[in-house]
Specification:
It is a single chain. By secondary structure, this protein is of the alpha+beta class. It has 2 domains: 65 residues; 104 residues, S-adenosylmethionine decarboxylase. It contains 3 helices and 9 strands, in the order ααβββββαββββ. Helix 1 runs antiparallel to helix 2. 27% of the residues are buried.
Length: 177
């Protein structure tokens, strides 16, 4: 079961990267429509199913009968509404990308940050998670940053913070039983 979820997640991520690269190369409405059609054909060929691709607003959205995925980058990105309410935002850092995916098995949301200033932000974030009922399952620290996993009934969270580079990522995955 875990391999299937992991496999599906990687496929969604690869689809998003493919569609985003097509978005970056397009210019103008005609090019955007041609890029959408090219992305749809490539994804349909890879997945064996019909999809709809929408390139707009600094992002891409892919819908299929199995679910949907979206990726947003650049511009003024805000905390995703699909993020569980008990997952706190990282304070004093800027959101630079958001990826969301939803299937019958559950959903996943990933938020990328820039502007991380110090390890105190990471420690405060972990404390906020724990006070919201999350259990820290594993932590790895290096001189450059921290990686940790947390869990709560039906959810898993993975976070990576590179204090040296000033960036990080928080990802949550829902697992419907």
């Amino acid at each position: 079961m875990i391999k299937k979820r992991l496999h599906s997640g990687w496929i969604c991520l690869l689809i998003m990267v493919l569609a985003l690269s097509v978005l970056a190369s397009g210019c103008g409405k005609a090019s955007e429509m041609a890029a959408e059609k090219a992305a749809e054909k490539a994804i349909e060929s890879a997945s064996g199913g019909e999809v709809k691709v929408d390139l707009s607003n600094d992002g891409v959205k892919v819908d299929s009968k199995d679910g949907s995925s979206s990726f947003q980058s650049g511009g003024d990105i805000t905390w995703p509404k699909s993020m569980p309410t008990d997952v706190p935002q990282l304070k004093d850092a800027k959101i630079v990308n958001v990826s969301e995916s939803s299937t019958a098995d559950g959903k996943s949301v990933v938020v990328w940050y820039e502007g991380l200033k110090n390890s105190d932000q990471v420690d405060q974030y972990k404390s906020s998670l724990e006070s919201n009922g999350w259990t820290i399952a594993a932590t790895t620290s290096t001189p450059d940053g921290t990686y940790f996993m947390a869990e709560k009934t039906g959810w898993e969270l993975a976070a990576t913070f590179n204090v040296k580079e000033g960036n990080g990522m928080i990802g949550v995955t829902e697992h419907k039983e």
